[in-house]
Amino acid sequence: MTWIRQQLMKAITLGMIVGSALIIWKALVCMSGTESPVVVVLSGSMEPAFKRGDILFLYMSKDPIRAGDILVFNVDGRDIPIVHRVIQVHERQDSGEVDILTKGDSNEDDDRVLYAQGQLWLQRHHIMGRAIGSLPYAGWVTIILTEKPIIKYVLIGALGLLITI
């Protein structure tokens, strides 16, 4: 009977940890106004402003986008969001829409080669959020687990073993 109670307590504790993490994530989503309030910088294209492995905190507001803003955006046909700086903004008077051109700080050319074929500008629906803060190097865990999946499986196995023991 005691063994069953211990296992039940372990399961409840694990459920509380997972539930707490989900609540924190949903609170961040609500406060930031974006579905991805936290992203990891995966390349060196924004150095020296952000280095590979930095965690960025995003916020989505109705404020106008201006040259110099750092945006995280999705491009049609790509799964991984891109973090780059706005270099040009064109506001269309007739519709109120905005055309945005971006570039990585350490890249020589603008991002038109990264956009979908035939696309010359980003629009608001491509934007996930603006970078409002960062945590240097804290995202390396994510990069290592993505690039070396064997480490991820070992950690999951070790956690599973730890829970059952």
UniProtKB/TrEMBL annotation:
Stated membrane topology is:
Single-pass type II membrane protein
Kindly state which keywords UniProt assigns to this record, in alphabetical order: Hydrolase, Membrane, Protease, Signal-anchor, Transmembrane, Transmembrane helix
Q: Give every Peptidase S24/S26A/S26B/S26C domain span.
A: 31-90
Q: Does the keyword Hydrolase apply?
A: yes
Entry-linked Pfam families:
Peptidase_S24 (PF00717)
Q: What is the lineage of its organism?
A: Eukaryota, Viridiplantae, Streptophyta, Embryophyta, Tracheophyta
Q: Where in the cell is it found?
A: Endoplasmic reticulum membrane
Q: What is this protein called?
A: Signal peptidase complex catalytic subunit SEC11
The GO terms this record gives for MF are: serine-type endopeptidase activity; signal peptidase activity
Please write the reaction equations for the catalytic activity of this protein.
Cleavage of hydrophobic, N-terminal signal or leader sequences from secreted and periplasmic proteins
**The EC number(s) this enzyme carries:** 3.4.21.89
**GO terms for cellular component:** signal peptidase complex
Q: Name one GO biological process term.
A: signal peptide processing
Keyword Transmembrane helix among UniProt keywords:
yes
Q: What does this protein do?
A: Catalytic component of the signal peptidase complex (SPC) which catalyzes the cleavage of N-terminal signal sequences from nascent proteins as they are translocated into the lumen of the endoplasmic reticulum. Specifically cleaves N-terminal signal peptides that contain a hydrophobic alpha-helix (h-region) shorter than 18-20 amino acids.
Q: Which family does it belong to?
A: Belongs to the peptidase S26B family.
**Principal subcellular localisation of the protein:** endoplasmic reticulum
